[in-house]
Write a structure and sequence with these properties.
435 residues; 5-stranded parallel β-sheet; alpha/beta; binds zinc ion; 2 domains
Length: 435
């Protein structure tokens, strides 16, 4: 299919083009510029009043937790997790997790998200949901081990990883990839870390982990091992592979250097960190150090939505508080975190993250013909400070339109609603969770 956007505003990730033309040929961007390209097109889209962006990358999620939206608003990670979330998760079956993941994907797709980096048990079902939804997914299973040793034949995470790498790593020409994963320093041991590093090496996979999310976690890690969680990981070769470090709120400058050297990124989750009272990541300092920063929502249960426009705005506003006005990040910095930063975090910077000829046609189109986006003195300012996920009118992955003007083209929403009703009845019997 050949598609041409004409007379659109295009933010390529490198520059802003007005009255621009953007041609998509099959799965790829064939042309972007200010003159109409030659040739015939199957569809010509009038881009007047529209802004075309690289698709947004949600670099840290637990999509199946969308079933737990609003189930607990406790402001303390440990209590929220151990007293409220874990007991419900223990009742979630793989088919339930798949339904939750598809619901999360539907929400993200409608907000311009073209790729997720997800971490959860039941990763096979989440991969199946991404297969059906047509979205890009880096899937991982947050590996935990609470004994002193690690036996990959007995650890449930390691057992699922065998199937994940066999069936899903590189699925659909790399649309789905598998990341290896250590859930966190405090939920695993060095044997686990070494095993996961080996998986990353063997499969050229990213290492997705939680790092120094709360002060308590960071301080207790130091008490336990005499060094920060990142320094402990480094000793076992974890940063010899590209690391996607979620949160890193309490990570120290030397810890961030490890992330940078690994070729990976921090997944900054500003709203989740605020909601759980974990703190504010110093994104401005990280950018000054040359660390790649991506944006994530974290699970819906601690956010409580998957709208990356909210994350972009929050990232800038919080950087004013964290680093001081004169050192804060810009609106464009936040936009880059959600696009090219996310592509680096997923190991996809050679295929997407910017709008460039030859790159995958992963696009989000924002309708600026809305009262809250008028007037438009500055496109990027409006995108980051005024736009909402619901202003997205089209989401495209590899040239395929997944969502347009409120319609899902790959997800059967009627079926999803039916499945969701059954799952919620089973998971929360007697509780009316649907209005
Ligand atoms: Zn997380």
């Amino acid at each position: 299919m050949k598609i041409l956007f004409e007379n659109a505003i295009v933010y390529t990730g490198e520059k802003l083009l007005k009255n621009a033309f953007l041609a998509v040929n099959g799965t790829k961007i064939a042309y972007v510029g200010d003159t109409r390209p030659e040739g015939c097109f199957d569809r010509v889209i009038n881009g007047k009043g529209k802004v075309v962006l690289p698709g947004l990358v949600n670099a840290h999620t637990h999509l199946s937790m969308t079933l737990l939206r609003g189930v607990s608003d406790t402001t303390n990670l440990q209590s929220w997790l151990f007293d409220n979330i874990f007991p419900i998760e223990a009742k979630m079956t793989p088919p339930m997790k798949k339904v939750g993941a598809l619901l999360g994907m539907a929400e993200g797709i409608a907000c311009g998200t073209t790729a997720f980096s997800d971490m959860y048990a039941g990763a096979v079902g989440i991969s199946e949901a991404a297969r059906d939804a047509g979205i890009k997914l880096n899937i991982s299973r947050g590996t935990t081990e609470f004994s002193d040793h690690f036996d990959p034949t007995k650890n449930n995470d390691a057992i699922e990883y065998v199937e994940l790498f066999r069936d899903w790593h590189g699925f659909d020409n790399g649309r789905i990839r598998v990341d290896s994963s250590i859930h966190a320093e405090y939920t695993s041991n060095p044997d686990t870390w070494e095993y996961m590093v080996k998986l990353s090496r063997d499969h050229h996979a990213i290492m997705h982990l939680h790092l120094s999310e709360t002060e308590k976690e960071h301080r207790e890690g130091i008490e336990r091992r005499g060094k920060t969680p990142a320094q402990a990981f480094a000793e076992y070769g974890v940063f010899d592979v590209p690391v996607l470090a979620a949160h890193s709120v309490w990570a120290e400058p030397e810890d961030l250097v490890w992330i940078k050297k690994s070729g990976g990124a921090v997944a900054h989750n500003p709203i989740s960190n605020l909601k759980l009272g974990s703190g504010v990541f110093d994104s401005a300092a990280a950018l000054r150090m040359g660390v790649t920063v991506a944006l994530g929502t974290d699970g819906t249960a601690s956010n409580n939505n998957l709208d990356l426009f909210e994350e972009m705005k929050s990232a800038v506003l919080l950087s004013h508080i964290r680093a001081g006005m004169e050192n804060a990040i810009s609106a464009e910095d936040a936009l880059k975190m959600a696009t090219v930063g996310g592509a680096v975090a997923q190991g996809r910077s050679d295929e997407c993250g910017v709008i460039r000829e030859g790159f995958d046609a992963d696009l989000a189109v924002v309708d600026f013909d809305r009262p809250h986006l008028m007037p438009c003195h500055d496109v990027i300012s409006n995108l980051v400070y005024a736009a909402r996920g619901s202003d997205v009118c089209m989401t495209m992955v590899r040239g395929k339109i997944l969502y347009e003007n409120g319609e899902y083209l790959t997800i059967d929403m009627e079926r999803l609603n039916y499945d969701l009703a059954n799952v919620l009845d089973e998971l929360f019997p007697g509780k009316n969770t649907r209005l």
